[in-house]
Design a protein that fits this description.
The chain has 153 residues and is α+β, with helices and mostly antiparallel strands. The protein has one domain (2-152). The chain has helices at residues 2-6, 10-24, 40-51, 91-99, 136-146; strands at residues 56-62, 73-78, 81-87, 107-108, 111-112, 119-124, 127-132, 151-152. It is globular.
Length: 153
């Protein structure tokens, strides 16, 4: 199977990954503590990024012990850069957690964060999206879909 996948064009492989992820999750909101599959809004974000010409694929689903967010992170690669997507069950919960992020992104709740590069936090309905880096194409791709960053530098 590995040889067969290796022959696929990147766009075809991304489509297969997106479809497989969509089939793996139901239409209910993402459940905190169940990092089994990306939620529907995460899948929609990936599809929108791809429609806008970016490469976007799920890299892994993980619980970030050092991040004070209550839901697992979906690490996606956007144009090869790591972006973490946090999907909440409701907009209200996402709003409450986003409110805990300082304007410059240096703290989340009571936790001070030392970033390896420049943090950029975006909001979209039930999503908090975090990109730590300085690639203007990644920042523009996220901002074009989610609006300007709500926190970061």
């Amino acid at each position: 199977m590995r040889r067969w996948i290796g022959r696929l064009e990147p766009a075809s492989l991304a489509l297969i990954v997106t479809i497989a992820a969509a089939l793996a999750c139901d239409s209910s909101p993402a459940k905190p503590g169940n990092p089994a599959a990306p939620g529907p809004e995460t899948i929609q974000l990936l599809a929108a990024l791809q429609r806008n010409g970016a490469t976007a694929e799920v890299a892994e689903i993980m619980r970030l012990e050092v991040m004070p967010f209550s839901v697992p992170a979906v690490r996606v690669l956007v144009n090869g850069s790591n972006v973490h997507v946090f999907e909440y069950a409701t907009v209200a919960v996402a709003d409450a957690e986003a409110a805990g992020v300082s304007a410059d992104g240096s703290s989340i709740g009571a936790t001070q964060v030392l970033w390896v590069s420049t943090p950029h936090f975006f909001r979209g309905s039930r999503l908090i999206v975090l990109y730590v880096g300085m690639d203007p194409m990644v920042i523009e791709a996220l901002a074009s879909l989610l609006g300007p960053q709500f926190a970061g530098r």
